[in-house]
Sequence to fold (154 residues):
Amino acid sequence: MSGTQQDQDLPVTEALRLLGDVRFGRVVFTSRALPAVRPVRHVVVDGTIVIAAGPELVLGPSSPSTSATGETIVAYEADQLDSTGCTGWGVVVVGRARPVTEPAKIRRYRRLLPQVSVPDQLVAISADVVTGFRLDASPAVVAEPAAEPVRAGC
Fold:
């Protein structure tokens, strides 16, 4: 008997709910014309991902994709996988990142985000393209003569 691993695509609402259940993820952006990935804190508010990033990290002046509106196209990823990588979920969002400048929103988001002592900027990422998956592996049971069953990997 062999183990089966099933990847299940998630609806957008479920993917964003799962993303909101964790506090950290990775933002993918362009820095000096090269792809860059950084771990950041986040919160999901009304379908928007708000991250706290180092000053000018995501929206810095070296980002070639920054538009006249101050927006940059980024990807955001978070996941929760077991130690074997056989079960769990992952969510990737592609959207427009822009600085959060309204004082009321800054206060609200700072209350919701995990606290740290380093300076940061708040960046809102629109959820333009959301993909999510859930991994569900059923480990195989290999019967060996006169021995306990041995669980195979996913």
The chain has one domain: 8-134. The domain at 8-134 is CATH 2.30.110.10 (Pnp Oxidase; Chain A). The longest strand covers residues 34-45.
